[in-house]
Structure formats: structure tokens, C-alpha cells
Input
Amino acid sequence: MNSNYMLIRAVRGPILLITLGVLMSLHRFQDINFSKTWPVLLILLGLMKLFERMALRAGETETAGPFTGAGPHI
Output
């Protein structure tokens, strides 16, 4: 597996929890309702999945050698 892909997967949970904590703090200490800011979590999750796929695809193209296709190699 690609190290960038593994790094993104490893930090996905903590980043989402930190974002949730920030949104809850804004709800508690500011005049910003969580009911209006929760879509930020969905956007962040979507961005993290997009970065995962980009890193996975970049890792596939880096590891592909000259003989990765099907058929006999001469």
C-alpha cells in the first residue's frame, strides 16, 4: 500500500473528532448552532475520501512497472 494512503486513513478519524469538537465548542461558547454547522462534517468526510482515492491512485501508478499488462512478456 501507498504510505500517503495509509497516512490519510490513519488521520481521518482524529481529524473528524477534532472538527466535531470545534463545532460543539462553537455551539457552546458562541452564538453558532450545531444544527447549522453539521454539514461541515459531511464535507470534511467527503474531502478525506477524495484524498484517499487520489493517494491510492498515485500509489498504483508509481508501482506500475513496464510489465504490468496482460499477455506474454518476451
Residues 3-63 form one domain. The mean pLDDT is 85. The two ends are 28 Å apart (CA to CA).
